[in-house]
Each structure stands twice: as C-alpha cells, then as structure tokens.
Amino acid sequence: QSVLTQPPSASGTPGQRVTISCSGSSSNIESNYIYWYQHLPGTAPKLLIYTNNQRPSGVPDRFSGSKSGTSASLAISGLRSEDEADYYCAAWDDRLSGVVFGGGTKLTVL
Amino acid sequence: QVQLQESGPGLVKPSETLSLTCTVSGDSISSFYWSWIRQPPGKGLEWIGHFFYSGSTKYNPSLKSRVTISADMAKNQFSLKLNSVTAADTAVYYCARDRGGYSSSWYDCWGRGTLVTVSS
C-alpha cells in the first residue's frame, strides 16, 4: 500500500487528453512539492514535472502538472503512442521524514 | 553531461549483505543530495535513502535498521549496503541525483539501474 495513491491504469486514444491523479495527505502533497516521473521498462525513470508544475527542458508542453490541497494531477494532451509508459508521483513526507512514491499508473495508448 | 552508473553483484544469498556502488561523472558528489531507489519486480518505486557530502544521511524508516549509504569523495562514488537480505529485496536498484535538497524528490539524473536477485 503506497502512501500516495494513483489509479493503477489509464488509457486513451491518440490525440486525446488524459489525466492521472495522485492523492496524498497534509504531510506530503499538501506541504511539499510534487514530482512526476515517466518510466519505460528497462530504462531509467525520467523526470517529467518538478516543483508541482514545472517542466524540465526537453519535456514537451503536452505534459502539465497541477496540485490542490492533498491531491495532484498529471495531464497529457495530444496523446501519442510513445507516451505509453508507467507514471509515478513522488513527494517528501514530513511525518515519515522520507520520500514517498505513488504506486504508479500504467498508461495505455489504444 | 551528468552520468550515473550502478555496479555490484547481481546475485546475493539470503541473510548476506547487498553492496552496490554508484559512480558519478560530470558532477561532484559534494553538490546536491544523492539517493538510492529500487523497484521490485512488478511493483513500484521505493525510496531507500539519501546522503549529503557533509555526512548527513536519511533512510526509509522501513529499511533503516539494515541500510547504510556512504561515499568515497576521492572516487566521486557513493555506495549502498543493505544487510540481512531476503527475497523481498530482489529489485532493480537505481542511484539518482536529487537537486532539490533535503526534503525533496527532484531526481533529475538517474543511473540505468542494476538488477539484484536474492537467492541461494
């Protein structure tokens, strides 16, 4: 059972917009920054979003992040086949005094 | 360009100690925080812990009694030791750079990961 809760799966067709949620608590998402990672099997995870809603250089603006209270979300617009991957949210947890990850969401592009 | 490379045995016997090293190039480990993260087969990512060059370390409470993260500043490497391993410690182990500071999870550079299997 992960401290941050994500739906195990999500799907969409090419060109669609999909949203992946990440639910936490006052000790993690509400009081600290949220980060999002894209993970393709056999590769290193890739930073997609940092400090809630910022994109590193090289990440397309199709990816966006937001946070409100104890929840956060990652939105992917103009879905493409190469977006098929696992997505993880992460945050520092003040109560545990450590980093917590969501359980991951497997995105399928139909 | 910053690169991280994990190295160490791919097979460890139960009850023994898992030892991995992360070699960093393109940056000094005297900057930022440096972390170990793992992913058991079929499961999600799990933070193991981090260290800062000052000697400050922080570990996942669930692993704290078995984990040590240390560094060799001269070699620009940092290491993970996990003792008394069981099959539940079988995972791909990643090292990563956290550019956000103590209470952050801003991993902008990762190693490719190394699979460690615990089996007799």
Descriptive report:
With 110 residues, chain A is mostly beta strands. Chain A has strands spanning 9-12, 18-23, 34-39, 46-49, 63-68, 71-76, 85-93, 98-101, 105-109. Chain A is globular, with a radius of gyration of 13 Å. The N and C termini of chain A lie far apart (28 Å). In chain A, 40% of the residues are buried. The mean pLDDT of chain A is 96. In chain B, strands 2, 4, 5, 6, 9, 10 and 11 form a seven-stranded mixed beta sheet that branches. Chain B starts with a strand and ends with a strand. Chain A binds chain B through residues 2, 32-33, 35, 37, 39, 43-47, 50-51, 56, 88, 90-92, 94, 96-104, and chain B through 35, 44-47, 49-50, 58-61, 94, 100, 103-108, 110-113.
Please give the count of helices of chain B: 0
Order of helices and strands of chain B: EEEEEEEEEEE
Q: How helix-rich are the residues of chain A, as a percent range? A: under 10%
**What is the percent of helical residues of chain B?**
under 10%
Mean pLDDT of chain A: 96
Gap from first CA to last CA of chain A: 28 Å
Q: What is the oligomer described by this structure?
A: heterodimer
**Beta-strand level of the residues of chain A, as a percent range?**
over 45%
Mean pLDDT of chain B: 96
| Structural class by secondary-structure content of chain B | mainly beta
Attribute tags:
heterodimer; A: six-stranded mixed beta sheet; three-stranded antiparallel beta sheet; 45% strand; B: seven-stranded mixed beta sheet; 0% helix; globular
